[in-house]
């Protein structure tokens, strides 16, 4: 008896052959796409922020408002005007800032040391007032989109607080700095030091800086350094 080909079996064989060929072609295309796709840089090649503070180098006129009694409900601000000299150290990996200002509370002198941690890609900001002679605990942070935010944790008047220092509105000839305290874990921030620095223009001692509003930015406490220390409020 003559065997006749089974049409269903033949169709199934053609389908399986086509499916196998399609899989092979898809795998080949995928391998080619992977080979030509850009490879992201390894973690060791993060953006180098060593020169983020270069804008700060030079001689500046500074107008400052200082809250005398932070976190007490007081609204007693004083105005100070003076000069800031900033010089580069270690080819920009560090800076030394000298501050002199005068106001109704008298003459003030301070020193700020900026250090860049090339492994962590973060800046540390260390401040000392001449009246105290002891470095405060640093604020640590980085710049993103032209704005620098540095955070620390300290003891102030017997309470553990968070400290935030913000550098903003940066141009070649001016910038703004603001320090705030938080005693509720970063849910709210009370500014206590605000300043405008101008490179070329004389600052009028009669002009007052506007008082900043209380910020309600929520922050994660886990982002802040755990350094603690007794802050003496700018040596006043």
Give a quick precis of the structure.
By secondary structure, the chain is mainly β.
Give your account of this protein's structure.
- The chain is mainly beta and 236 residues long.
- It is 13% helix and 42% strand.
- Strands 1-2-3-4-5-6-7-8-9-10 form a ten-stranded antiparallel barrel.
- A hairpin with a 2-residue loop joins strand 3 (94-103) and strand 4.
- The longest helix is centred in the first third of the chain and has 30 residues, at 7-36.
- The radius of gyration is 30 Å and the shape is globular.
- It starts with 6 loop residues before the first helix and ends in a 38-residue tail after the last strand.
- Mean pLDDT is 80; it is low at 33-41 and 218-231.
Any descriptors?
single chain, 236 residues, mainly beta, 10-stranded antiparallel barrel, 1 helix, globular
Radius of gyration: 30 Å
Number of DSSP strands? 10
Derived from helix and strand composition plus strand pairing, the structural class reads mainly beta
List low-confidence stretches: 33-41, 218-231
One letter per element, helices H and strands E, the order comes to HEEEEEEEEEE
Helix content: 10-25%
Largest sheet: 10 strands, antiparallel, barrel
Q: Could you give the order of strands across the largest sheet?
A: 1-2-3-4-5-6-7-8-9-10
What sort of overall outline do the alpha carbons produce when their principal axes are compared?
Answer: globular
Distance between the termini: 115 Å
């Amino acid at each position: 008896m003559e065997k006749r080909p089974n049409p269903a079996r033949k169709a199934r064989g053609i389908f399986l052959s086509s499916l196998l060929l399609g899989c092979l072609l898809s795998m080949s295309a995928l391998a080619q796409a992977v080979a030509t796709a850009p490879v992201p840089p390894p973690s060791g090649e993060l953006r180098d922020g060593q020169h983020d503070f270069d804008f700060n180098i030079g001689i500046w006129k500074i107008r400052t408002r200082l809250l005398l009694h932070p976190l007490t409900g007081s609204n007693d601000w004083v105005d100070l005007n003076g000069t800031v000299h900033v010089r580069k150290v270690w080819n920009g990996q560090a800076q030394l800032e000298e501050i002199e200002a005068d106001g109704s509370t008298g003459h003030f002198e301070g020193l700020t040391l900026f250090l860049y941690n090339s492994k962590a890609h973060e800046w540390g900001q260390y401040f000392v007032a001449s009246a105290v002679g002891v470095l405060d605990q640093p604020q640590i942070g980085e710049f993103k989109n032209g704005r620098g935010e540095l955070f620390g944790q300290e003891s102030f008047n017997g309470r553990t607080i968070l400290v935030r220092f913000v550098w903003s509105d940066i141009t070649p000839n001016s910038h703004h700095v603001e320090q705030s305290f938080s005693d509720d874990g970063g849910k709210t921030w009370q500014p206590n030091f605000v300043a405008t620095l101008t490179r070329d223009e004389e600052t009028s001692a009669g002009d007052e800086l506007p008082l900043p509003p209380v910020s309600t930015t929520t922050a994660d406490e886990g982002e802040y350094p755990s350094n603690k220390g007794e802050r003496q409020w700018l040596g006043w």
